[in-house]
Amino acid sequence: MTLGVGGNTPEQALAGLQNMTAGVEPIGLAEYQARIAQAQALMRAQGIAALYLNAGSNLRYFSGVQWYASERLVGAVLPAEGALEYLAPAFEEGTVRDFQVVPGAINTWEEHEDPYRLLLGVFARLGATSGSRVGLCPTLPFTMFERLRRQGIGFDFIDAALVTAACRQRKSPAELALMQRAKNMTLEVHKAAASMLREGISTTEVTQFIQQAHRQVGAAGSTFCIVLFGPASAFPHGVKHAQTLKQGDMVLIDTGCQLHGYQSDITRSYVFGTPSARQREFWDMEKAAQQAAFDAARLGAPCQAVDAAARRSLEANGLGPDYRLPGLPHRTGHGIGLDVHEGPYLVRGDETPLAEGMCFSNEPMICVPGEFGIRLEDHFYMTAEGPRWFTEPSHSVDDPFGLER
To answer: Which of 123, 269, 272, 365 is 20 to 30 A from 94 via CA?
Structure first.
């Protein structure tokens, strides 16, 4: 039997977890102000007069305001010089003010009024004159962009990712600390979930347990959860039907939580029962590919080099090539921060140089159609000395959580 898999009841597994959020602080005002200063310096260097930050992670990153995007325009305008200002429906003014970490004027519109005209007026008042370059949030829906474009004749609208992505892709020590704790929390949830598996349990039951377990360690719950057994584990993001666990099944669990907005995302794959020779062989190939990717992460190297290293490892073992199966059907990894998936990416074609503070998943999954899939996903961040793991990778197919060391 795989060590650490099975043997506990759900109640026993939950009882072994405790709140892990003590001593963790959210991002403070001084860091938000430093982010704004960095963005404004980039804007001035690139001749950008103003940015519009739409509701979502970009708004939160620069202002602290937590707001989900909807059909109503809610966001902030950052000028190249001067203070951040907000835009919101009049009936939401109090709520937006309550969420503010960075204080600023709130420009409001009534339900019958045109918020796009108001936004264009704010641009002009904050220094974006006719012909100015104005950055629009990359997550702004096309319909909203079109309304601005039709009315904003004279503005040169560009993708604000030139600034937002440049700021967000290199994490500060405070961001790294929040992600480290969130990942530690999810790893403990993984251990608990593995310990309560039993023959006949459904993927639905395991998903529900993981939600409870994330709450037990101090999160609001799981931000996402993929639980797959047997042949279904060969589908990277799952299948529509639930499965029940059988002896000899490969188990794949991919889940995460957030802590003050910062994300975890960890996958573990192991066998319920005793691994077959074939499962053992492929599991070892997966671990080798993950290590090859980590070893290739060097400061200044392009992101695509990490993906290439993982594929070389797999191809040396007769898998692939490229995206062919059995093999790796997707990129090796993604950036992570306030969003579970954010740039840059560990994929062919992404030539972004690896730099200190960048954070990535490392998950070169092996899919064997009709049999099983194996994904070992841990995250690393770049330091002055090279890559460093947030969480220690899975130890072995017989002892995935390193319980005997």
So the answer is: 123
